[in-house]
Amino acid sequence: MGAHPGLARPGEWLRQQRVASGLTQEDLAERSGVSVRAIADLERGRTRKPYPSSVRALVAALGLPGAAGDALVARYRAGDGDDARSAADGTGPQPGAGTGGADEPGAVTVPRQLPTRVPHFAGRAEELALLDGVLDEAASAQATGATGVVISAIGGTAGVGKTALALHWAHRVAHRFPDGQLYANLRGFDAAHGRPAEPSDVLRGFLDALGVHPERLPADAEGLAALYRSVLAGRRMLVMLDNAADVAQVRPLLPASPECLVIVTSRRELAALSAREGARLLQLDVLSETEANELLVTRLGQQRAAAEPWAVTELATLCARLPLALSVVVARAAAAPGLPLSALAAELTELGGRLDALDAGDPAANVRTVLSLSYRHLPDSSARMFRLLGLHPGPDISAAAAASLAGVAVRAARTALRDLTRASLLMEVAPGRYAFHDLLRAYAAEQGTSAAGIANTTRRMLDHYLHTAQQAHQVLYPGRELIALEALAPGVSVETFGGKAAALAWLEAEYQVLLKVADLAERTESDAHAWRLPVVLWTFLNVCGHWHDGTRLHRLAVAAARRHGDKSGQAHALRGLGSFAMSLGDFDEAHQCLSAAQRVFRELGDDLGLARTDVIFSQALEFQGRFGEALEVIGDALRLSQALPDDPNMALVRASALNGSAWNSVQLGDLSEARAFCLQAIELCQAIGYSPGEAGTWDTLGVVLQRLEAHDEAVPCFLRAVTLDREMGNRYDLAMVLAHLGETYLSIGDVGGAREAWDESLLILRALHHPQAAAVREQLAALATRPRPGSGEPAARPQPRSAERAAWPPAGGVAQAGGVAQAGAAAPPGDSPLPDAATADAGAA
Asked: Percentages helix, strand, coil for the chain, rounded to the nearest 5?
């Protein structure tokens, strides 16, 4: 219908305009101030003489020009409220009268081309608020004349709901654009049409909808675009350009009027539209878990969803929370109302067949078909990268890893990843890290790679992560023994690191990937990688408190080494498994694994491996309070290390053994011996650059000084350990050092410092689910009951709480720490509330 009443009776005309605007009677009532009952009576023809003010309010709420309201009031006054007689006999307003074509002076044509909004729209509250903000900002800018046409560009992968969001929002804000709405499907990615729409054809359609006579249309595209801009000048129009192929297709369709709003949707990245035309870009991701569940419940119906709530959640997950896939599931469920949702979920469980199940019998509702429309537009090199990414276990990948995956240079990999991101087949989820959802992964994997190609790609991938992890550990934990790795496969890019911070950042960023890669190595029976990767990661897993993951990976490593027939690998994996069992308090398994590792290392004549195992065995005994036995076992490690004084790996073991000897001596009350061991260990650790051992020994020395009541000198020892542990990401030992630091602050009256240290220690221990958290919690609780200064207790004297203000060593160097008076009475064995503190190098021994 046009903007004027035409031949339809007034009530029917009003209803048609309301429906075309996507409004319910309730919506129109809320906008106009006219009651729902009054609107219903008007539409049914029951009211023949309405108030003119009500008619004009309804017309304005529908976003129609005032002339249409005047014409409608005139018809009601002429008694034309229930039929079309006056229009038929020429007594009422005729089509075009006062609202003629755009060729007439003052003519107004108001197109209402928006398709019906998607029913049962769910979620996207954040995105809708962002889009609303774009309009509000534009309105403010228009007041100062500082804006051009308002453009919102919505991007995202196939099936993510770009059009649904755009239509929902367009209908929601349509009343702010009373001169009408234009819509065009640009067919950038369309299964039914081979080619995208030509901008000139779209412009002809728009100009026709705006009432421009065909004879006035220029023949060339530039002339059409100029006329289009002229017709829209000064009008408040909403233009929706759906499914754009690229920016070049969109630009000719942009009006120049700042009163207009353009909404563009595309699978392609439209960054150029932002750079030149100032478009606001919104990249749409899959729905959140809550939104996906909400969509399913809304469309399946409360009763059916409530009968199998767990199946609803599983369906959302299996569909990767992709709106198109969720809609297909809803369609299939609706077609089989007796089918349990759990049966549908079971059909989707197998990733390989999931795309087969996500087909509602229509190309537009077939997930595989919709994804293929993006894939087939890729350059060959980018298409190959997409296929190979289907072999990567996820959850994300860096450019360097993608380069190794494809066996290409990093620069070429970045180009391919950029192409995939622009095509919305990949998302840059963090700077330099890329990911796609499971359905895209399944589609990529099924595009076809030969068995030999899969094997070569998997080898390059495993080599990349194994060799780069070894590089990171070499930088982060210098002096640590390195296991021998096989030669790199051709085409692998190994990353390097300029310092400890970069190495730690890589390990943390790749942590979830490394877990999945280790599983992939086990699944593909790549046994040489399956045992080496956990062993290489051992120190990182241990010091960062990833003990459960470490246990699982080292069980896989033991099995892989046995399959591979590698005795050294078995011994290394058993030792790691024993260390994690120790950290988790399973001392029976710890003793079994460590004893087995000792036997194998003896059989192999590997004194280094045996000495390192002895250090960890002593720590297991120490954790059980068996300090005398621990001192004997650590003595064996010390003797083995001293037999090879020039071996740098043995120097590391010697440093760990010295620290372990110091700690056990503390527990047995021999502080003088403990101090001597500490000073030797610190000197050795600094000489070989062994940070974990140095951090642990500073902590032990701090405890020695604590026991000697030299608290002011203990503080800088603990602060040095804190600095080193932070550098290495050593969470558990950091928590232990902070616990000791808190005790020392309290001893010197710095209650605030004690509280800060214990608060952080408790936070870490809770995150690790460590039982030691209970002891720190009790200390904080006791601190809360202490009387505050001024209530009978002397005020705490200020003490330095930062490494910068309490630098170590003091004048005279480390040796001065050894000059502390020995008069302080030794605490009884086991007197420390934190008896397992000096274990900083348990995993790195």
From this structure: 60, 5, 35
561 domain-assigned: yes
Instruction: Give dist(CA 201, CA 130) in Å, integer.
Output: 32
Residues 537 and 663 in one domain: no
Q: 445 and 459 share a domain? A: no
Cβ count within 10 A of residue 66:
12
Same domain as 412, residue 489: no
Higher pLDDT among residues 500 and 798, named by residue: 500
**pTM for this entry:** 0.68
SS3 760: helix
The pLDDT tens digits of the residues spanning 620-676 come to 999 899 999 999 999 999 898 888 777 777 888 898 899 999 999 999 989 989 999
3-state secondary structure of 612: helix
The residue among 317, 318, 326, 288 whose CA lies nearest residue 159 is 326
Please compute the mean of the pLDDT values over residues 341-347 and round it to a whole number.
86
Average pLDDT score, the chain: 82
Reference 413, options 437, 442, 392, 393; nearest CA is: 392
**Domain limit, last residue, from 239, 259, 284:** 284
**Same-domain check for residues 457 and 444:** no
| Count of structural domains within the chain | 6
DSSP state of 146: -
What would the mean pLDDT of 110-126 be, rounded to a whole number? 85
Instruction: Give the DSSP H/E element, type plus range, for residue 565.
Output: none
Query: CA 292 to CA 120: how far, in whole Å?
Result: 12
Percent of the chain at pLDDT > 90 equals 39
For residue 82, what is the domain's CATH number? Answer: 1.10.260.40
For residue range 672-704, list pLDDT tens digits in order: 899 999 999 999 989 888 888 899 999 999 999
**Nearby residues of 633 by Cβ (< 8 Å), 6 or more positions away:** 614, 617, 618, 621
The predicted pLDDT at position 36 comes to 79
Confidence bin at 568 (pLDDT 50/70/90): very high
β 427-430/261-266 pair status:
unpaired
> 234 and 140, same structural domain?
yes
* Residue 419 confidence (pLDDT) above 80: yes
CATH number, domain containing residue 481: 1.25.40.10
Tokens of 112: 């209402």
Answer yes or no: do 223 and 332 share one domain: no
Same domain, 212 and 312: no
Could you tell me which of 626, 652, 654, 628 has the C-alpha nearest to residue 640? 654
The gap from C-alpha 556 to its chain's centroid, in whole angstroms, comes to: 28
Q: Would you say residue 636 lies in a domain? A: no
Co-location of 439 and 477 in the same domain: no
Count CB atoms within 10 A of the CB of residue 787: 8
Place of tokens 């705490």: 796
| pLDDT tens for each residue of 304-338 | 889 899 999 989 988 888 888 888 888 888 878 88
* Of 468, 540, 463, 546, residue with least CA distance to 504: 540
- Give yes or no for a contact between 613 and 597, defined as CB atoms under 8 angstroms apart: yes
Strand 397-398 with 433-435, pairing: antiparallel
**Helical spans, DSSP H, in 174-220:** 199-209
119 in a structural domain: no
Q: Residue 440's domain spans which residues?
A: 378-449
**E strands present in 484-625:** none
Tell me the two tokens of residue 674.
């403990």
Could you tell me if residue 104 is inside a domain?
A: no
